[in-house]
């Protein structure tokens, strides 16, 4: 207790670089920000590297969320801790995650949920007090958090319930990806996760044919480009490919209401299940006729793939080290922090799967356009 209190009392504000989103859909602005010391139950982390996800792009395009520091896939080193933090210490390698696990509430204690009911997500702010730890170094203007992580910054502050400790020897670039790959593993999602769960035929749907080679290496057996179906819907093509029945499991990954409906129509009568993984950027309803649900088909949501981060991410890390889980195939680009807007463009254009952003730029090996 005395050591923790002393560490918390000695922590001072830090000034560092951040890629701040100030206008929806406009390039991020590299600014100097001030990062406050961690308060009780909080951890301040020096980010080693981060990656960009379509969820970041979805929220970046939305109005009313600015100024914000986006980013939610990262790995870093604990720089300081607040009071009552016991499970990590200064110098530990950690992965910040966007879902909390307090290990105390009914949801955290149940194997049926991964939604912490003690610390629900507070959009734009720290979960316990609804305030921010970020401000503009030049004006003092508050800057919003994102998904309880905010990793497009050299230092961030995260509640300890959103932190998972990893062995310091684990490759940092691979650690960035563990949360998204965790979703694939837990619900037998696209490509590699489905293959690992025993799927024998995996049909990928994408507008970008450049992704097909990578998909094959990850386990996808068949491909559909919606632009090349001769006027047929994707669901019609999938039913033809599966003998008229449809797929046992359908996964929607981009956050489009229309694509969610099409995924459902691609599922098999009787037991077809559609899992929604994509974060939707609008309030558009999903157009599913009620009578189509009666024959046994279902639709479920899957936040973070249903994984409990503190339990499952260390397990996934072990699977990677034992070569049971491939992560390298997902990394198509690596860049320095100052090139983050280029990384956004590549992902938005469908030219990148995952781009690792190195804060110090020392480990950059750009893998092409």
Overview features:
369 residues; alpha/beta; Quinone Oxidoreductase, Chain A, domain 1; Rossmann fold; 2 domains; seven-stranded mixed beta sheet; 10 helices; globular; GroES-like_sf; ADH_Zn_CS; zinc ion binding; S-(hydroxymethyl)glutathione dehydrogenase [NAD(P)+] activity; metal-binding
Explain what the structure shows.
The protein is an alpha/beta fold and 369 residues long. It folds into 2 domains: 221 residues, Quinone Oxidoreductase, Chain A, domain 1 (Alpha-Beta Complex), CATH 3.90.180; 117 residues, Rossmann fold (3-Layer(aba) Sandwich), CATH 3.40.50. The protein is built from 10 helices and 16 strands. The strands form 4 sheets. Strands 3, 4, 5, 8, 9, 15 and 16 form a 7-stranded mixed beta sheet that branches. A 4-stranded antiparallel beta sheet has the order 1-2-6-7, with no helix packed on it. Strands 12-13-14 form a 3-stranded parallel beta sheet, with helices on one face. Helix 4 packs across helix 9.
Please indicate the count of domains. Answer: 2
SS strand fraction: 15-25%
Distance between the termini: 51 Å
Supply the CATH class of the largest domain. Answer: Alpha Beta
The H/E string reads HEEEHEEHEEEEHHEHEHEHEEHEHE
**Which spans of ≥5 residues are poorly predicted at pLDDT below 50?**
none
Cα-based radius of gyration, to the nearest Å: 21 Å
Helix content: 10-25%
CATH architecture of the largest domain: Alpha-Beta Complex
Mean pLDDT: 88
Return the structural class. alpha/beta
Can you identify the CATH superfamily of the largest domain? Answer: Medium-chain alcohol dehydrogenases, catalytic domain
Task: Give me the count of strands.
Answer: 16
Q: What is the molecular shape?
A: globular
Briefly note the CATH topology name of the largest domain. Quinone Oxidoreductase, Chain A, domain 1
The helix tally amounts to 10
Sheet having the most strands: 7 strands, mixed
């Amino acid at each position: 207790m005395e050591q923790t209190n002393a560490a918390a009392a000695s922590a001072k504000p830090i000034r560092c670089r951040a890629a701040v989103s100030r206008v929806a859909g406009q390039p991020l602005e590299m600014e100097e920000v001030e990062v406050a010391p961690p308060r009780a139950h909080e951890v301040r982390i020096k980010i080693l590297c981060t990656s960009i996800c379509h969820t970041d792009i979805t929220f970046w395009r939305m109005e009313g969320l600015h100024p914000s520091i986006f980013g939610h896939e990262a790995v870093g080193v604990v720089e300081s801790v607040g009071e009552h933090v016991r499970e990590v210490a200064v110098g530990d390698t950690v992965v910040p995650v966007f879902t909390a696990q307090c290990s105390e509430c009914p949801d955290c204690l149940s194997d049926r949920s991964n939604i912490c009911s003690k610390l629900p997500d507070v959009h734009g702010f720290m979960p316990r007090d609804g305030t921010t730890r970020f401000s503009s170094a030049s004006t003092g203007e508050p800057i919003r958090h994102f998904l309880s992580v905010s990793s497009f910054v050299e230092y961030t502050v995260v509640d300890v319930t959103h932190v998972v400790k990893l062995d310091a020897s684990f490759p940092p670039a691979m650690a960035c990806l563990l949360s998204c790959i965790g979703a694939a593993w837990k619900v037998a999602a696209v490509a590699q996760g489905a293959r690992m769960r025993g799927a024998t035929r995996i049909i990928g749907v994408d507008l970008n044919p450049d992704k097909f080679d990578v998909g094959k290496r990850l386990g996808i057996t068949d491909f559909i480009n919606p632009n090349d179906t001769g006027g047929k819907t994707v669901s019609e093509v999938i039913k033809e490919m599966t003998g008229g029945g449809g797929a046992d499991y359908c996964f929607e990954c981009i956050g489009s209401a229309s694509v969610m409906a099409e995924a459902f129509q691609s599922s098999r009568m009787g037991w077809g299940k559609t899992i929604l993984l994509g974060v939707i950027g609008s309030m558009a309803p999903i157009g599913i006729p009620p009578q189509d649900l009666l024959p046994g088909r279902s639709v479920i949501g899957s936040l973070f793939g249903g994984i409990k981060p503190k339990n499952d991410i260390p397990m996934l890390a072990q699977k990677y080290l034992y070569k049971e889980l491939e992560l390298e195939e997902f990394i198509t680009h690596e860049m320095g922090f100052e090139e983050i807007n280029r990384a956004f463009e590549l992902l938005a254009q469908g030219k990148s799967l995952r781009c690792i952003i190195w804060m110090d730029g020392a480990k950059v090996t750009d893998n092409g356009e």
